[in-house]
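Predict the structure of Aconitase.
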Amino acid sequence: MGKNIVQKIIESHLVSGRMIPGEEIAISIDQTLTQDSTGTMAYLQFEAMGVPRVRTKKSVAYIDHNTLQTGFENADDHKYIQTVAAKYGIYFSRPGNGICHQVHLERFGRPGWTLLGSDSHTPTAGGIGMLAIGAGGLDVAVAMAGGPYYFTMPKVCRVWLKGKLQPWVSAKDIILELLRRLTVKGGVGKIMEYAGEGVATLTVPERATIANMGAELGATTSIFPSDEVTRAFMRAQGREHEWIPLEADPDAQYDEEIEIDLSKLEPLVAQPHSPDNVDTVRNVGPIKVDQVAIGSCTNSSYLDLMRVAKILKGKTVHPDVSLVISPGSKQVYTMLARNGALADLIAAGARILECACGPCIGMGQAPATNAVSVRTFNRNFYGRSGTPSAKVYLTSPEVAAATALTGVLTDPRTLGEYPDVEMPETFEINDNCIIPPPPEGTPVEVVRGPNIKPFPVNKELPDTVEGIVLLKMEDNITTDHIMPSNAKLLPYRSNIPYLADYCLTLVDKDFPERARKAGGGFLVAGHNYGQGSSREHAALVPLYLGIKGVIAKSFARIHMANLINSGILPLTFVDERDYDDIDQDDRLVIENAIEQIKQGNVLIVKNITKNKEIKVGLNLSPRLKEVILAGGLLNYTRKNSGK
Ligand code: F3S
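Done. Here is the predicted structure for Aconitase.
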């Protein structure tokens, strides 16, 4: 029987397990990436493993999230990452070189290889035919140490693209259409594999936009074939020798199939406060807009910004709109500068930011109170912009540029002739902001400023797990709710005690104090708990506050892995109606926890306050059960390596 692309790559990297959906498998990892927000923790954890040098084919440390230097903290973190990268054999992408996923696509991504990144949008590299998965920092640290990556074999969903996009309709609209149909939970437990004649009509950066926002579907990753379009992109990047063809066999089997007719799509918009709250721009209508932000790892490629420049050329941004643009990489920025497009953007009144995540991570450009912000980003969760009362809409660069000119949400088809942009035959290649590691054995001192604090490590699971319910939450709680990430907090990402004062305060401002007073306890939540970023801090900070378990209707994949890695029990209601009978301050006890976990996949939780027993699921592989019993992955790894 023929194989699909996912099966081909997994088979060639399989370390253990069978490729049957739902079964745990382990694959070898060719490349890793970290960004600074999660990287400090990943490297602290890597150091704790005592391995002298990374064992991947290539590992890259990017600085792109927290590039503002309003105090010593960020600069200290950058210095730590730069020196730790040099010591352990890791490439270092300097601040200013660009957003990790954009740069990785340009300079490092390789079809047929595996990539593990401590960022939830790592799947962006699926646009170049890589099996690229986002994970917590500790999983990435284990991969850097040469360990395989364990995960549940997902189902493979074939997304068949037919037809061709109409003028003014873009790759962003394809993924917004999928979000509209499938919702933010629709890709959970799946890999989206793209196929069909429509694929050949999309450039690699356009494919990357789609793969990028597969993360918002909750998918494990997304992948495109590697074809002549991929080859041309790699040739233009001076890397044709790294290209291989990759496509599904004609008789390949898929677990699910979905079809999109590209020619029928029109400009779409995700409305506040969820990426799946999608409607057509036409239906939403001309709402007044205060800010337009163009950039992020979703839409900051050369093609994206050239189209924006052509739309803005010779015109002026509406007086009520603040337009900010962040080029995705130094390569993109340089090319726009050389060909004059940058001058067109500046002349129109755009504010050009540095090549970094910027406003996407709440790092500057927070909108005004109650403002409407139209962004080309991938997330519009409540509070992520830095202004809780702001309303964020997600669109394509074309819609964003048209909106910047008119001051109201605008269907760009009203602008007239479409400014087509050709893919360049060569990109400007200058890797002088990517510092390769010195040869092995070169002495390097790792510099640790005062902002680098030790991270919490759990203890072995006790036999009686007991505590009160510290907080009961609804569905779709994001990692931004659990551990907000904004300009004020990001500088403290390597300082867990400081961050603890802000844990879950977007849900309940008294939570940290209550958790401290109670000495920890349980959290209760609805469906899709922990959706959003790969932020390990959303598990490490609750661990620091003494959280022993989270009982939810369901979990987002990466967050669940982060909870397990921290030794926090991720428990699911066997009967969802039990959610209604559990309240804040109820005292819960799990007796004989160790035996219960070893024996089966269902545990009994006694609710002492309500005098009731409920069943919760802990359906983990034998290995993950060992991780939980050891009190997390670091303890487990140390135990098994005799350290
Ligand atoms: Fe950065 Fe936003 Fe992407 S924070 S990595 S641009 S999702």
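Residues 65, 99-101, 119, 121, 296-297, 357, 360-361, 378 surround FE3-S4 cluster (CB under 6 Å).
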